[in-house]
Amino acid sequence: MYHRLLSAPGSPDFCQIYYDEAHDWLRATWTGLVGPEHAQQGATLGLDMLKQLNCPYLLNDNSRLQGLWFDSLEWLATTWGPPAAEAGLRYVAHIAQPDAFVNTWSAADSRRLLSQFEIQIFDHEYEAVEWLSSCQRQVR
Q1: How far apart are CA 36 and CA 18, in angstroms?
Q2: Nearest-CA neighbor of 121 among 30, 46, 58, 35?
Q3: For residue 22, what are the β-bridge partners?
Q4: pLDDT digits (tens, 9 = 90+) for 77-127
Q5: CB atoms within 10 A of CB 74
């Protein structure tokens, strides 16, 4: 199961989402400039895949993003998070965009999102992979 999302025909991907069978998790990789509409489109596709797979693990990679990321925490906490948790999502490893200030999340939205599943934020892919792998070892 693999999906590529393009902002326009002939343009580069802005999001690739696939089930990584070797690791048994869903992986979303975001690239370039991604506005709110495309971010929600990609997140919704990821949610549909989580529902189909009943996968408790998500590796969300923003390390290749450029420019400002949209203010999504409220939407994630209220619209995306509840059905993702209902679909079985339990652990999210988030690789932050370089030089991003991820501590701008509002306290209320952060608590709402974090109460649905565990999220850890990383600067490097190897850290995110190790953490998700450790979560799997604890569960098994």
Answers
A1: 21
A2: 58
A3: none
A4: 889 999 999 999 999 999 988 876 554 554 454 566 667 789 898 999 999
A5: 14
CATH number of the domain enclosing 41: 3.30.750.24
Is the pTM higher than 0.70? yes
Secondary structure letter of residue 93 according to DSSP: E
- Give residue 58's domain range: 6-139
What the block records as the tokens of 130 is 């190790």
Helix (H, G, I), strand (E, B) or coil at 11: coil
The rounded distance, in Å, linking the Cα atoms of 100 and 13 is 21
Rounded CA separation 95/120 (Å): 9
HSE toward the beta carbon, residue 52, CA cutoff 13 A: 11
